[in-house]
Amino acid sequence: MISLNDITLTFPDGDERITAVDNVTLTAHPGTVTGITGPSGSGKSSLLAVAATLIRPDSGQVLIDGVDATALAPREATELRREQIGIVFQQSNLIPSLTAHEQLTVMNELGARHSRGRRTAVAKRSRELLDAVGLAPHADKRPHQLSGGQRQRVNIARALMNEPSVLLIDEPTSALDQERGASIIELILRLTGDLKTSTLLVTHDLVHLPQMHGVVTLVDGRIVADPPRTASTPLRADLGAVAS
After folding, report:
1. Coil, strand or helix at 233
2. CB 175 within 8 A of CB 91
3. Does any domain span residue 244?
4. CA 20 to 30 Å from 59, out of 40, 120, 126, 147?
């Protein structure tokens, strides 16, 4: 589970500071996808960076499975991020020379302890995840041999390699057409349910919001309201939290 409690983040602007995130509180529970939406410049990606422990907020807490990430030393935060957080960036940033399978297995080599002894298990998990995202037949293809939607699926599978309890996703459909974007959202919802991750998903695409378990809207760094709902999809109403 991830809880953001009274998060405020500012950036310097000459002699003043600009508030990017203003006293935001929300919670995502295991097995749920919480959408974060709002206009450009509203603080969505900044909030996600705080949740990912990539930026330390001015004030507030980031609780990941009960651990306050804002109180950790940089090395401890890196360890927490490596072991418990999966991050899907807007661009897939795949390594051109590696196959889809290798994009996943290389994660085992990036600073993790005892990586050599885990290689067999890591290779097995890579194959399982590629199968889960529908890319088992394309495991040996390199990025230039994959479509945009397929590259984003590799990106998602790669973020799940460390079996994270928290999954953070930034604009996963921005470079895709509507059909491929819808399939990516369906994939994220399915994997979140299957793997019981607590997922925060930043999106500008309002058409996907009714599928989320909860939605918050940011304007000028503050949560302002829930977006409209459909009769068939219950979204929780409280502005500060998303309950299971």
Report:
1. strand
2. yes
3. no
4. 40
How do residues 76-98 score in pLDDT, each as one tens digit?
999 999 889 999 988 878 999 99
**Could you tell me if 55 and 8 are in contact, meaning their C-beta atoms sit under 8 angstroms apart?**
no
Q: Contact at 8 Å (CB) between 153 and 53? A: no
Q: Tell me the pTM.
A: 0.85
- Domain membership of residue 198 (yes or no) is yes
**Which of 49-53, 138-142, 163-167, 230-234 bottoms out in mean pLDDT, i.e. has the lowest?**
230-234
Amino acid at 2: I
Contact 148, 175 (CB under 8 A): yes
Q: What range does the domain containing 66 cover?
A: 2-94+165-225
User: Parallel, antiparallel, or unpaired: how do β-strands 32-37 and 198-202 relate?
Assistant: parallel
Domain count, the chain: 1
| Domain presence at residue 201 | yes
- Per-residue model confidence as pLDDT tens digits over 127-184: 999 999 999 999 999 999 999 899 999 999 999 998 999 999 999 888 788 888 899 9
> Which CATH number belongs to the domain containing residue 205 in this structure?
3.40.50.300
First and final C-alpha spacing in the chain:
10
